[in-house]
Amino acid sequence: MEFIPTLQRWPDPIKKLVLTFTLIAFVGVVAGGIMIEVTTHLTPQGVIHEYKGMKQSEMSQAKEMKFPKSNKEMLITTHNHILGLSSIFLIVGFLYLSTIGQAAWLQLSIAVEPLISLVITFGGLWIVRYAWPPFVYVVILSGTLMIATFAWMCLVVMKACISK
User: Fold this and answer.
1) Is residue 120 part of a domain?
2) How far is CA 154 from CA 52, 123, 151, in A?
């Protein structure tokens, strides 16, 4: 039973609004990814330095000194990202689920994945900072999955908005 018509059947003005929102959300997340590259150089050691700080011996040779994030900085980062991104992931996930073309179990798995990875990624940064720096590999994997599945959903939603 179909409760909501598929996105492809929504009225054109609503599809244009959805397309605009999805494009802006996509650009915003890409900008966040660029910021991650700038601050960490997309390396495990870069992530560790960004949150745990550098050892004294590393600072003398570094282009930029990195100090450990305080509890307040960690809380602000976690709070802002989890609240902001969970809302965007929910909206885009809902829109993605309203498209057609994939098996229901796969589509639901993809829609839920960014929300799960959000908790693992930002919770994992606490583990990297305070408990076990090698957990950075889990953080990188979950962050990559989060961005990849979000990008996939955005592309599918945008394609549905422009198809007749």
Assistant:
1) yes
2) 33, 25, 5
Residue-wise pLDDT tens digits, 33-48: 999 999 999 999 999 9
2 located within any domain: no
Distance CA 157, CA 81 (A): 23
What interhelical angle do 104-130 and 44-52 show, nearest 10? 60
Domain count, the chain: 1
Q: What are phi and psi of 98, to 5 degrees?
A: -85, 0
Degrees to nearest 5, angle at CA 55 with 53 and 56 = 120
Q: What is the pLDDT of residues 47-94, one digit of tens each?
A: 999 999 998 888 888 888 899 999 999 999 999 999 999 999 999 999
